[in-house]
Design a protein that fits this description.
With about 525 residues, the chain is an alpha/beta fold. The chain folds into three domains: about 5-240, Rossmann fold (3-Layer(aba) Sandwich), CATH 3.40.50.300; about 245-335 and about 425-515, 3-Layer(aba) Sandwich (Rossmann fold); about 350-420, no CATH class. Helices cover about 30% and strands about 25% of the residues. It contains 17 helices and 24 strands. A six-stranded mixed sheet has the order 6-9-10-3-11-12, sandwiched between helices. The protein has a six-stranded mixed sheet with strand order 18-21-22-15-23-24, with helices on both faces. The termini are far apart. About 45% of the residues are buried. The model has no long low-confidence stretch (mean pLDDT about 90). It comes from Herbinix hemicellulosilytica.
Length: about 525
C-alpha cells in the first residue's frame, strides 16, 4: 500500500444552491508536485480551503501520514505543516510587507516584536528564492504581482512542508513564472509536497508529476503528467475539444479612437519619481493594440491615468475627438470607454453586492434600468440573466448571488460581460483572462476579436506572451515608463519581444511625430 502525506477522502461540501465538492478523493505523495485542474467554479479552491481549515467538509475525512486529522482553522493547518498561497490575497492593505509576512507568528523579545530578526529572515528567504520585496512598502501601494510574492513569502516564513498554491502565477510575468517553477522544483527536491491549482496547461506539463482533474464539483480522474498531452487535459477539464490556434481576419484599422499625447504619471510608491515618462500613442477603430512589458514598468500607472483612477502629471488624452484629460470616471464611461481592470476586487466589483447589481454598475442610471430614480428590478434581472448565460458565469444562486462568494474566474467573467456588452468605442482590457480556464480564455479572446471586427478600438494589457502574440495587431513595449518599441506580431518573435521587455533592445528610429 502506497504511503501518502495527505489524503482527502470522499470530501463533500455544499453551499446554498451549489454542490462545490461532490465526493472527491485526492491523494498527495511526499515530495511530489500535484496539479489540480478544472474550469472556473469546478471546486478546486473550495477543496484546498477545506485542507487549509477555512471551510469544514460536510462529509469525508482528511488524513496526514495515514492518521485522521481535524483541521478546524488555518492555525491547525499551520501546526500540521500546511501552508497556502491564496488566489485572492489575504493581506492587510494598510500594513507593511514585513508586518503581513509575520502576522500571527511575530518573533518577540521581552514582549516586543523583534523586527530586526524578522527582517533578516525575510530578506534571506527573498534572496534565496528570487522573490525580492521591499519589507517597508505598504501593501496598498505595491503592484498585484508584488503582493503575490508577499503571499508566497508568508508561507515560506512559516517553514511549511505541504504547500498549496492557488493560482500563484495568475498575476506573474513570464519571467517570474519561470522562476516560480524553479522554486517549486527546488521545494520538491527538499522533500516538500506541493498542491498546485492552475488553469495553465503548459505549466502543468512543465512542472507537475501528477494531475487531478475536477469538473463541476466532481472528480474526473488523476493522470501521470509525463503520459498525457495538453489536448487530453483540456478535454478532461471542459469535456470538449478546444481551439488553441486563434483565427482572425487581417486588421482593418480606421479612424483614431484613443489619442495619448506626452503623458507622464507620478509613481504612487516612489514619490517625486515619474512612473510614466512622456508617452504618446494612438489606438484606432478596428484594431487591438497591446501594451506589453514586465510588470512594474509603468503599465498600471498609465492605465490608471487613461481610465481616471489616477491623476496625470502632464499630457493630454483624447477619446473620439473629445478631451478627457480631466474627465471623471463616469464621464469617460459615458464618452465610450469600457474598462476591464487589473485588480477585479479593488476596481472591478463591489463584493458584497449581488451579481445582478454588479452587472448594471456602469448602467443603472440609464432609462432602461431606472425610472424616476427607482431601479426597474425586472429589467435588471432579465439583463443579468442574459449575460450570465451568454458568458457562462457560474454562481450558486444566479443573479442574486453575492459576488464575494463566487470563484475568482467567475467574478472575472462577470466584469468582462458587463464591460463588453456596454455600449463603447474603446475597450481597455487589463489582463482580461487572468485566472480563467482554457475554455473561458478561448471564449474571451474571440470576444475581443469580435469587438475589434465590429469597429471597436481595443487596448490590451497582458503579461501572457502567447496572448500578446496571438490576439494583438500591434504591440507597444513599455520599459521603465517609456515605449521602447512598436512591433508587428506577425513579423516578430517571442525572443525579440523579450529583449525589448527586458530593456536589452530599444527602437530609437520609431520615435513618431505626434505633433
Amino acid at each position: 500500500m502506497e504511503n501518502y502525506i495527505i489524503e482527502m477522502l470522499n470530501i463533500t461540501k455544499v453551499f446554498p444552491g451549489i454542490v462545490a465538492n461532490d465526493n472527491i478523493t485526492l491523494r498527495l505523495r511526499k515530495g511530489e508536485i500535484h496539479a489540480l485542474l478544472g474550469e472556473n467554479g469546478a471546486g478546486k479552491s473550495t477543496l484546498m480551503s477545506i485542507l487549509f481549515g477555512l471551510y469544514q467538509p460536510d462529509k469525508g475525512e482528511i488524513r496526514k501520514n495515514g492518521q485522521v486529522v481535524k483541521i478546524n482553522n488555518p492555525n491547525d493547518a499551520n501546526a500540521l505543516g500546511i501552508g497556502m498561497v491564496h488566489q485572492h490575497f489575504k493581506l492587510v492593505e494598510i500594513f507593511t510587507v514585513l508586518e503581513n509576512i509575520i502576522l500571527g507568528v511575530e518573533p518577540n523579545k521581552m514582549g516586543f516584536i523583534n523586527r530586526k530578526e524578522a527582517r533578516e529572515k525575510i530578506l534571506k528567504l527573498s534572496e534565496q528564492y528570487g522573490l525580492k520585496v521591499d519589507p517597508d512598502a505598504i501593501i496598498e501601494n505595491i503592484s498585484v504581482g508584488m503582493q503575490q510574492r508577499v503571499e508566497i513569502l508568508k508561507m515560506l516564513y512559516r517553514d511549511n512542508e505541504i504547500l498549496i498554491f492557488d493560482e500563484p502565477t495568475a498575476v506573474l510575468t513570464p519571467q517570474e513564472i519561470d522562476e516560480l517553477m524553479e522554486i517549486m522544483r527546488g521545494f520538491a527536491k527538499e522533500g516538500k509536497s506541493i498542491l498546485f491549482i492552475t488553469h495553465k496547461l503548459n505549466e502543468i506539463l512543465a512542472v507537475a508529476d501528477r494531475c487531478t482533474v475536477l469538473r463541476k464539483g466532481k472528480y474526473v480522474g488523476t493522470v501521470d503528467v509525463k503520459n498525457t498531452t495538453k489536448e487530453e487535459l483540456s478535454k478532461m477539464m471542459v469535456g470538449r475539444e478546444l481551439e488553441f490556434n486563434l483565427k482572425k481576419a487581417d486588421v482593418k484599422a480606421k479612424e483614431t479612437v484613443l489619442s495619448v499625447r506626452n503623458v507622464s504619471v507620478m509613481s504612487e510608491i516612489h514619490k517625486k519619481t515619474l512612473a510614466v515618462k512622456n508617452v504618446s500613442f494612438d489606438v484606432r477603430a478596428g484594431e487591438i493594440v497591446c501594451l506589453a512589458g514586465i510588470d512594474g514598468n509603468g503599465q498600471t500607472e498609465l492605465i490608471y491615468a487613461l481610465t481616471g483612477l489616477q491623476k496625470m502629471h502632464s499630457g493630454q488624452i483624447t477619446l473620439c475627438g473629445k478631451d478627457i484629460t480631466k474627465a471623471s470616471i463616469r464621464e469617460r464611461s459615458k464618452a465610450g470607454m469600457s474598462h476591464i481592470p487589473e485588480d477585479r476586487h479593488k476596481h472591478g466589483l463591489i463584493l458584497d453586492y449581488t451579481l445582478e447589481e454588479n452587472i448594471v454598475l456602469q448602467r443603472y442610471w440609464q432609462p432602461k434600468f431606472q425610472r424616476l430614480g427607482f431601479i426597474k428590478k425586472k429589467e435588471v434581472r432579465d439583463y443579468a440573466n442574459r449575460l450570465i448565460e451568454q458568458y457562462d458565469v457560474r454562481s450558486g444562486q444566479g443573479p442574486i448571488t453575492v459576488v464575494r462568494s463566487m470563484s475568482g474566474g467567475n467574478q472575472q467573467k462577470a466584469i468582462i460581460a458587463r464591460e463588453i456588452d456596454k455600449e463603447h468605442k474603446l475597450l481597455v482590457a487589463v489582463q482580461p483572462t487572468r485566472g480563467l480556464d482554457v475554455g473561458a480564455i478561448e471564449y474571451i479572446h474571440k470576444q475581443l476579436i469580435a469587438s475589434r471586427d465590429a469597429g471597436k478600438a481595443v487596448l490590451l494589457v497582458s503579461f501572457e506572451l502567447d496572448e500578446v502574440m496571438n490576439v494583438s495587431d500591434r504591440i507597444l513595449v513599455m520599459y521603465e515608463g517609456e515605449i521602447v518599441g512598436e512591433l508587428d506580431p506577425k513579423k516578430t518573435t517571442v525572443e525579440e519581444l523579450g529583449l525589448y521587455m527586458s530593456g536589452a533592445k530599444r527602437d530609437t528610429v520609431k520615435e513618431k511625430d505626434y505633433a
